[in-house]
C-alpha cells in the first residue's frame, strides 16, 4: 500500500473513532429531556463525520448514482419526518426499520456481486457474514412492513394463524441453513437469492400471527434487528464504524423489547409465538357481569376535581384514539390554577410503542416533569384525592396484584385503586385487551363516567370553569 | 478480505459496543423511549457507510444501481430519523418553560 493510501486510511479511522465517541455521548445525553435535543444533534454530527471519513478514505469512482440515491432518500426521509402525525409515530418507526434492513440486504448483494466479478476465492467468514446480513436485513424488511400494515389497519390486526405454520417455519429455516452452506461452498448469486427470498417470507410469517396490541414489542425487536443487520454488514465489509453504531442500536432495541414484554407480563417467546387474544377473547364473553357499579355525570366529576388537593391523570391509548390530549391538558391547567397538584401516571404500554404516550402529551404542551412513570408514581396514589383514568383498562386492574388465578397476575400495574377516589372514563363496560373484568370498576371509591373521553373531559372543563 | 485476527478484533469491538450500548441506554428515561427509538433508527442509517463503499467500488452497472438503492434507503433513515427525533424532542418542555 502506498504511503498516501495509508495516510488516508489512518485519517478515516481516526474520524471513525471521533464519530463513535459522538454517537455514544449523543445517546448518553438522551438520558434527560433537558439535554436530549443536543444529544440528537450530536448523533447527526457523528453521522456526518462517518460519511465524510468514508468519502475521504476510499476511492469513490462514480458519484452520479450515489448522489441520485442520496437526494431521493433524503427527500423521502425529510418529507415523512415533517408530515407524520405523532399518533402515527409507530408506523413511521416501523417503516424506517424496514428500509434500514433493506439497505443492509442490498449492500450484501452488491458486495457479493463485486467479489464474484473479481473472481477471487471468497473466504468462509465473508460469505457467512454476507448471508447473515441479507437474512437479518430481509426479515427486518418484510417483518417491519407487516407491522406497519397492522398498525395502519391495512393488514388485519387479529393474529392470523396458518394451520401448518410451524412446519413452514421449520422448512424455511432448513432452507436458509442449506443455502448458506451452498453459498460458502460455491459462491453464487442463486444461493444468495434463495436465502434472500426465504428471509423475506420468514419476516412475513413471523409477524403475521402476532396480535395488533403486541406490535410495540415487535417494533422494538425489529429496531434491534435493523441495528444487528448494520453490525453484520460491518463484519462483511470489515468496517468498525458499522459494527459500533449497529451494536448500539441493537442493544437499544433489545432493552426496549425487554421493558415492553415485562410491562405486558409476557415472555418474548410468548409474544413471538403469537395468537394471544384469540382464545381469551372467546372465553371472556361467557360470563355475564351482574355486579353494580356507581356512575356519575360530568358536573359531579367537576366538583370532585375542583375540591381535590391532588389529582393524577392516568391516560391510556383510548385517550390518543379520542384525540383528547389537548382537552385533558386544558382541564389540568384549570386545576393547577386553583392550586391543585396535577400529575400524569404513564404505564409503559400506554401507547402504541415505548414512550408513545409521553410524546402525545408533550405535543399537547404537558410539561415533562408532570409525566411520571410507574415506579415514580405508584407510591403517590394513596396520598392522592382523585385519580382520573382515561381510556386505560388492564394496566389499572388490581387483580394483577392480588388474584393469582387472573391471566394478568404479576403484571406491573398503576395502583389507581389506592387513591382516595377514582373517576373511570370509559365508553362502556367492556373488558380490556386481556379479556378480564377490571375489579377497579366495582370498588366503592370508583365512579364510572360513561361516554366519549374527549366529550366528557370538555364537559368537566366547562363545569369546573363555572364553579 | 478477513483473516482470523481481524475477525477477532471485529468481534471484540462488537461485544464492547453492545456493553456500552446497554449501559448508556438503560439510563434513558421512559419518557424519551420513543425519541430513543426514532433516534436509534437514524443511527442504524450508518449502513450509509457500507452503501458508499459498495456504490463507490462497483465496476458494473448492477453494482452501481444496487449501491444507489442502498444509499437512498440509508438516507431515508438518516435524514428522516434525525429530523423526526428533533421534531419530537422540541416538544418536551419543563413546567413554566415556553
Automatic annotation (TrEMBL), chain B:
<feature type="transmembrane region" description="Helical">
    <location>
        <begin position="6"/>
        <end position="24"/>
    </location>
</feature>
<keyword id="KW-0520">NAD</keyword>
<comment type="function">
    <text>The transhydrogenation between NADH and NADP is coupled to respiration and ATP hydrolysis and functions as a proton pump across the membrane.</text>
</comment>
<dbReference type="GO" id="GO:0005886">
    <property type="term" value="C:plasma membrane"/>
</dbReference>
<dbReference type="Pfam" id="PF12769">
    <property type="entry name" value="PNTB_4TM"/>
</dbReference>
<keyword id="KW-0997">Cell inner membrane</keyword>
<keyword id="KW-1133">Transmembrane helix</keyword>
<feature type="domain" description="NAD(P) transhydrogenase alpha subunit C-terminal">
    <location>
        <begin position="11"/>
        <end position="94"/>
    </location>
</feature>
<keyword id="KW-0521">NADP</keyword>
<dbReference type="GO" id="GO:0050661">
    <property type="term" value="F:NADP binding"/>
</dbReference>
<dbReference type="InterPro" id="IPR024605">
    <property type="entry name" value="NADP_transhyd_a_C"/>
</dbReference>
<feature type="transmembrane region" description="Helical">
    <location>
        <begin position="61"/>
        <end position="84"/>
    </location>
</feature>
<keyword id="KW-1003">Cell membrane</keyword>
<protein>
    <recommendedName>
        <fullName>proton-translocating NAD(P)(+) transhydrogenase</fullName>
        <ecNumber>7.1.1.1</ecNumber>
    </recommendedName>
</protein>
<dbReference type="GO" id="GO:0006740">
    <property type="term" value="P:NADPH regeneration"/>
</dbReference>
<keyword id="KW-0472">Membrane</keyword>
<keyword id="KW-1278">Translocase</keyword>
<keyword id="KW-0812">Transmembrane</keyword>
<dbReference type="GO" id="GO:0008750">
    <property type="term" value="F:proton-translocating NAD(P)+ transhydrogenase activity"/>
</dbReference>
<feature type="transmembrane region" description="Helical">
    <location>
        <begin position="36"/>
        <end position="55"/>
    </location>
</feature>
